[in-house]
């Protein structure tokens, strides 16, 4: 329902959300035929994708990437939840150096719609949940190519997947909506961030040592050359990773989209393969079916990894 004052009333679950200026263009039409998308389009996408996206958001502190004037305007990263947010929007207070931060938590479709109204284009989630924020239940390998070479990403993903299989860890694959892929491992939350990050670093170094011409763990860009960077830095307290099915602030509104390992062989696959126009169709194929329910502790995998490292 639209109002004469440039607002649209949206019913989402148990709440009604006022969407202001739904016709405001957030993604202008661009080069290469990138289509235009408005705030109303983002709201409609959030409503449609909610059943698939919310399981990956519930109970997790979020950092919101907001673009009030669209992708061509200024960006700001919002950690603290403003006082004016509705009382039904979830919040969690977590410790930081010298104080606390009250992060937004998105537990329902109404909050997803409200965040779209706030022009929060990209939702960056913690890898831990509110009950034990210092113990992650996800581990992420971010495959970051030197350029826009997706074949290098595809190759690196296969190598990471093979190593995780050898370590008997389940893993899932996701396009980032930018240039690379994320490989996500579900964890039981028994290990703290330091232990998880150390495991991820050691695993990445095993791969980089075996393929020194193709892969690197060098944090500085100048030390990487044209090698793909195995980034494990997101596995740390208060760090975030883009959430599955979130939109990226790039022309055409690409979406960070879960894929199956079989889809890695699809020549049409690339980091920006899906957009808000078709990501829901991909979501309905349930490419991660069952994987996130197979969480593992890193104890046995750590022993296997140590054996590989000699």
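-> sequence recovered:
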């Amino acid at each position: 329902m639209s109002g004469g004052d440039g607002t649209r009333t949206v019913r989402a679950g148990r709440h009604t959300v006022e969407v202001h200026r739904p016709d405001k263009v957030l993604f202008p039409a661009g080069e290469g035929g990138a289509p235009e998308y408005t705030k109303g389009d983002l709201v409609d996408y959030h409503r449609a994708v909610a059943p698939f996206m919310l399981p990956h958001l519930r109970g997790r502190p979020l950092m919101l990437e907001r673009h009030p004037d669209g992708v061509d305007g200024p960006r700001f990263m919002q950690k603290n939840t403003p006082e004016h947010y509705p009382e039904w929007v979830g919040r969690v207070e977590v410790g930081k150096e010298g104080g606390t931060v009250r992060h937004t938590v998105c537990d329902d479709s109404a909050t997803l719609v409200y965040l779209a109204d706030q022009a929060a284009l990209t939702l960056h989630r913690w890898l831990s949940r509110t009950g034990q924020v210092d113990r992650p239940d996800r581990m992420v390998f971010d495959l970051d190519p030197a350029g826009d070479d997706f074949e290098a990403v595809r190759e690196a993903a296969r190598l990471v997947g093979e190593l995780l299989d050898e370590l008997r860890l389940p893993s899932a694959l996701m396009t980032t909506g930018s240039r690379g892929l994320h490989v996500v491992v579900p964890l039981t939350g028994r290990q703290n961030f330091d232990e998880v990050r150390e495991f991820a670093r050691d695993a990445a170094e095993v791969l980089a040592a075996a393929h020194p011409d193709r892969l690197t763990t060098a944090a500085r860009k100048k030390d990487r050359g044209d090698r793909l960077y195995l980034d494990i830095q997101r596995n740390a307290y208060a760090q975030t990773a883009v959430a599955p099915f979130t939109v990226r602030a790039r022309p055409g509104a690409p979406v960070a989209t879960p894929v199956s390992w079989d889809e890695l062989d699809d020549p049409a696959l690339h980091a920006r393969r899906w957009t808000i126009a078709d990501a829901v169709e991909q979501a309905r194929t349930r490419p991660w079916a069952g994987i996130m329910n197979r969480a593992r502790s890193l104890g046995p995998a750590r022993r296997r990894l140590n054996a590989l490292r000699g």
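The first strand starts at residue 7 and ends at 12.
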